[in-house]
Amino acid sequence: MEFPKYNKVEIRRKKWRGKWYYAIKDIVKALMDTPNTKGYLKDLRNRKPKLKKDWDKLTKQILLPTNRYNQHVRSAHAENLKKIVEFIPFKKKEEFFVWLDRVDHE
Length: 106
Description:
The protein is an alpha+beta fold and 106 residues long. It has one domain. It is built from 5 helices and 6 strands; from the N terminus they run E-E-E-E-H-H-H-E-E-H-H. Helix 1 (24-32) crosses helix 2 and helix 2 (37-47) packs across helix 3 (49-58).
């Protein structure tokens, strides 16, 4: 299966209940170029109480492929992903949102 790329990072996704769900770790890696996406997301949620409070409403565990097997990965559909990205200090948000809208309708 081929996945869309943003900033040369493959963004895993899966269609579930009529919507594409994107791996949040992959998005953070593409936006922030950090090797420790799990730690980055944990710190972000701790710094942003609203994000921490809404995290389980904004995200779902979706079964996605990894290097060796399928694994449940924290994911979000485009609308909720935009809400999450708003909390990330990334200067090119509009460019990312344009890319997301394009791949979300493929």
